[in-house]
Amino acid sequence: MIAKFENYLRGDLAGSGTIKSYIGAAHRFHRFIGVLPIEQVRPSHITEFRLTSQDRGIGGTSISQYLIGLRSYFKWLHREGIISEDYSLWPECHLKQKKAVTLRSARQAEHHKIPTGKSIPIEHRRLIIKTSLSNTRKVDGLNSNAGERNALMIEIGWICGLRVSDIITLKPRNFDFRLGRIEKRITKTNEILSLPVCSDLLLDKVKKYIEVNNILDDSFLFPSSQNDHMKSSTFTAMFEGVLTKAGLPTGQLNGYTPHDLRRTCATELFNNDVPLKTISLRLGHASVAMTENYLRLSERTEDVEKLTSAIGKVFDIGCVA
After folding, report:
1. Category of 151 on φ-ψ map: left (φ > 0), alpha (ψ -120 to 50) or beta
2. Which of 85, 97, 143, 321 has the fewest CB atoms lying closer than 10 Å?
């Protein structure tokens, strides 16, 4: 269907940049709705698509371009008789940034104290780890099998709240086992993140993983066969494979995505009364205000204690050997 839309744009003599933008928006939206037929899309799906994009750190200008592309796509679908209603006329396809922030606040208010985004419940987290560990395939360059490696990456994601781009680029030198911290330059912001792991169990797993696999201090924890680090696309394929094998849904609309590991960290800590500023710092949100808060936080051990208590309660499920 998208290929036909692309042919239509080319026949309409649209510029290459416009075609790339519109087709990209259509692909993003279809990945978001997953298996939901396009005929069943409702205005709420457009709103969720935009809010999810905001949660992933995509800026207002890019989101506006997505909506422009989707409007063109929806008009074409309507003209082709694929959808009976012209979705491009919906107000949700014409939202401005100021209105978007208002709607986001309203959605958060509906969920009371639960932040925007999905949290993977504990029973599903246990199933994900158990399913991952069942993969005993040999990994090139490692003594650990694929399941042990994958389970460790997933646990780092929902305990530390790191983005996938930062999980796959971790090195032994990023871990200060004496102080129980991770020190790393964040890929997205290029800022140095220093966060307390607050989980002796996770630190022990990482330390054992390094020792078992004889990983040098400046080598990647999760290497690829090309002597580089694992790629984000490989991580995504791995995560979706584990979910499918576990019988859990995938996809941004009704399923889980790798970014939900990060959302799980934020949501679970928030629901266990960890201060919002502490959580923001843990996620490495880049701003001067956040940095100032972090400097003050380093002298407030009560926040670290709350982190340790919450993580021990909701994350240390003890499945990875």
Report:
1. alpha
2. 321
pLDDT tens digits along 176-187: 999 999 999 988
DSSP state of 192: E
Which fold is adopted by the domain 2-110? DNA polymerase; domain 1 (1.10.150)
Say whether 250 sits in a helix, a strand or coil.
Answer: strand
CATH architecture of the domain with residue range 122-314:
Orthogonal Bundle (1.10)
Average pLDDT, the chain: 82
In terms of DSSP bridges, do strands 175-176 and 181-185 run parallel, antiparallel, or are they unpaired? antiparallel
**Structure-block tokens of residue 131:** 């399913």
Helices 276-283, 288-297: crossing angle, 10 deg rounding: 110
pLDDT tens track for 258-269? 988 988 887 777
Percent of the chain with pLDDT over 90: 44
d(CA 65, CA 257): 23
Strand-pairing partners, residue 193, are 184
